[in-house]
C-alpha cells in the first residue's frame, strides 16, 4: 500500500526564533562530533530538519548578518566592515521589518554585528538588547539567554513574536590570551579529551598555495590558535564555548514551552560562517573553501517530520524568504534566496541542484595581513574561486574531491567547465553590481 502524504498545515502567524551563532563550524555539534556535548542543539536536530549542505555566501560577520535578514547578496546590500551602514530602504525587505508590520512583536538580543543605529533599530525591532563581550559579571552567553527569556515572557501570549538571538559564541575574544572563553562552569569541561584534527590538517595543501595566501590573515590566525602543540587546548576551549551556547539554547527553548509557544514556534539555528581549525593550514574564516562557507542549519517545529537533507543545497539567503512565507506574507519583490518551505513541508523532496554566488570583499587595514578578495560560484558539483586582486584561481570537483584537495584550474580536461563557470561568475557579479533584480540564481 502506498503511503499518502498529508500536507503540513502552517498555523496562522506562528512564532519565529532565530538562533544565529558566530564562527560555528558545520560539524561543531554533538551529533556530528563525538564527545562534544550539545544536548539541546541535538534535540532540535533530532526533532527537526537538518540541512547538511548549508552555506554562507559571504563568510564574514557583518555581510552575512544583513544577508540573513534580507535574503540579499553582499554585492547588492553592500555592507561589510568599514563601509557605510546598510541602506535603510533595503531593510524594508528584512523579515524583522516585514513581520513587525504584520503585527508581530519583533525582538533582538546579542551581538549587534550589523552595527545598527537607532533609526535602523526603530525600523525593525520593538525591543533591542545589544550585549557586548564583557566578562564582568555573568558570561555574555548567559546574559543573552536571560534577555531572550525576558523577551519571550514579556510578549503577550495573544501576540506572535519574532526574536533574533545573535550570539557571540564561539567567536574568539582576541583581547585575551585564552581567545576562547566559555562560561566558568564549562571551563575545563573537555580536559583531557583529544578531539581529532581536521582531515586536511597541516601544510600539505598550504604549501601549494601562492605567497599571498601563505602570508594572509588566515595563516596568521592558524599560528595564533591551532599551530604546534596548542591545538588540543584551543579546540577544547572552542568546543566548551559551544556547550555554553547550547545551554543558552536549552533555556530559550524551555521558555517557549513554558510560555505556551512550544507547539507554534519555528526555531532556526544557523551560523554566520564556518571556521578553519587548522584545515589547509589556516585559521579564521573569510576564504571560499567549504570549511569557511559551510554552516549548520537546523529548522525545528513541533509538527515537522524529522530528517536530514543530505544533498539539498541551502544558503543563509533562504532564511528570510522562508520565514516570510511561513508567516503567510507575500514574498519580497527583491530576494536572492529561495524559500525552504518545500524542503521543510514535503518529506519526499530530498535534493536540489543549485548554483550560488560567493564573494568576500573586505580587507583589513594596511598594517594587517591580507584577506584576499575573491568571488566565484559553487554548485553541487563544482567550486570556482577567482582572486580578484591576484592572478590565481581555484577549481574543485566536489563530487570526487569533497575536501577540495586537487586544484583543477590548470587542467586542460576542464577548460569547458571553467569557461562555463566563468560566464556564470561574470553574469552574477555584473547583475548584482548593477542592482538588477534577478528572481532566481538557479543554474540554467
What's the gist of this structure?
This protein has helices spanning 39-46, 61-70, 74-77, 95-101, 118-124, 140-154, 211-214, 217-225, 231-258, 290-293, 319-326, 341-345, 415-433, and strands at 15-21, 48-55, 105-110, 127-130, 161-166, 265-271, 276-277, 283-284, 297-300, 307-315, 356-360, 374-378, 382-387, 392-397.
What structural class should be given to the helix and strand makeup? alpha/beta
Average pLDDT, rounded to a whole number, is 93
The side-by-side strand order for the widest beta sheet comes to: 4-3-5-1-6-9-2-10
Distance between the termini: 37 Å
What is the ordering of alpha helices and beta strands?
EHEHHHEHEHEHHHEEEHEEHHEEEEH
> How much of the polypeptide forms β-strand, as a percent range?
15-25%
Helical residue percent band: 25-40%
Give the CA-based shape. globular
Q: Are there runs of 5+ residues with pLDDT below 50, and where? A: 1-7, 436-444
Assign the CATH architecture of the largest domain.
3-Layer(aba) Sandwich
What number of structural domains do the residues give? 2
Largest sheet: 8 strands, mixed
CATH fold topology of the largest domain: Alkaline Phosphatase, subunit A
By CATH, the superfamily of the largest domain comes out as Alkaline Phosphatase, subunit A
Radius of gyration: 21 Å
DSSP helix count? 13
CATH class of the largest domain: Alpha Beta
Amino acid at each position: 500500500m502506498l503511503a499518502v502524504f498529508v500536507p503540513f498545515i502552517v498555523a496562522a502567524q506562528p512564532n519565529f526564533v532565530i538562533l544565529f551563532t558566530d564562527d560555528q563550524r558545520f560539524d561543531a555539534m554533538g551529533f556530528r562530533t563525538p564527545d562534544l556535548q550539545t544536548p539541546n542543539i541535538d534535540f532540535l536536530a533530532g526533532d527537526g530538519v537538518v540541512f547538511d549542505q548549508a552555506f554562507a555566501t559571504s563568510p564574514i560577520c557583518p555581510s552575512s548578518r544583513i544577508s540573513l535578514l534580507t535574503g540579499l547578496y553582499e554585492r547588492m546590500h553592500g555592507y561589510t566592515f568599514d563601509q557605510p551602514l546598510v541602506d535603510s530602504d533595503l531593510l524594508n525587505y528584512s523579515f524583522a521589518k516585514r513581520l513587525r508590520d504584520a503585527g508581530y512583536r519583533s525582538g533582538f538580543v546579542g551581538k549587534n554585528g550589523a552595527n545598527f543605529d537607532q533609526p535602523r533599530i526603530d525600523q525593525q525591532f520593538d525591543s533591542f538588547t545589544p550585549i557586548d563581550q564583557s566578562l564582568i559579571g555573568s558570561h555574555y552567553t548567559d546574559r543573552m539567554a536571560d534577555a531572550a527569556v525576558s523577551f519571550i515572557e514579556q510578549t503577550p501570549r495573544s501576540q506572535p513574536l519574532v526574536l533574533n538571538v545573535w550570539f557571540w559564541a564561539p567567536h574568539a575574544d582576541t583581547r585575551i590570551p585564552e581567545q576562547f572563553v566559555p562560561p566558568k562552569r564549562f571551563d575545563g569541561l573537555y580536559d583531557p579529551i583529544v578531539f581529532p584534527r581536521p582531515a586536511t590538517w597541516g601544510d600539505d595543501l598550504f604549501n601549494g598555495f601562492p605567497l599571498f595566501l601563505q602570508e594572509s590573515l588566515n595563516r596568521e590566525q592558524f599560528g595564533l590558535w591551532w599551530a604546534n602543540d596548542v591545538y588540543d587546548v584551543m579546540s577544547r576551549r572552542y568546543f566548551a564555548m559551544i556547550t555554553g551556547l547550547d545551554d543558552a539554547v536549552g533555556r530559550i527553548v524551555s521558555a517557549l514551552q513554558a510560555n505556551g509557544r512550544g507547539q507554534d514556534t519555528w526555531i532556526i539555528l544557523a551560523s554566520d560562517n564556518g571556521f578553519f581549525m587548522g584545515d589547509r593550514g589556516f585559521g579564521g574564516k573569510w576564504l571560499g573553501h567549504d570549511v569557511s562557507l559551510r554552516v549548520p542549519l537546523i529548522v525545528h517545529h513541533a509538527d515537522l517530520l524529522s530528517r536530514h537533507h543530505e544533498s539539498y543545497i541551502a544558503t543563509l539567503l533562504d532564511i528570510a524568504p522562508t520565514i516570510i512565507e511561513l508567516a503567510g506574507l507575500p514574498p519580497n519583490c527583491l530576494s536572492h534566496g529561495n524559500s525552504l518551505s518545500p524542503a521543510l513541508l514535503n518529506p519526499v523532496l530530498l535534493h536540489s541542484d543549485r548554483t550560488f554566488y560567493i564573494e568576500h570583499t573586505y580587507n583589513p587595514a594596511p598594517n594587517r595581513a591580507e584577506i584576499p578578495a575573491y568571488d566565484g560560484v559553487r554548485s553541487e558539483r563544482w567550486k570556482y574561486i577567482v582572486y580578484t586582486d591576484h592572478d590565481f584561481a581555484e577549481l574543485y570537483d566536489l563530487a570526487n574531491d569533497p575536501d577540495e584537495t586537487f586544484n583543477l584550474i590548470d587542467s586542460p580536461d576542464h577548460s569547458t567547465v571553467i569557461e562555463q563557470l566563468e560566464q556564470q561568475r561574470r553574469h552574477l557579479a555584473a547583475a548584482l553590481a548593477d542592482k538588477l533584480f534577478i528572481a532566481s540564481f538557479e543554474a540554467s
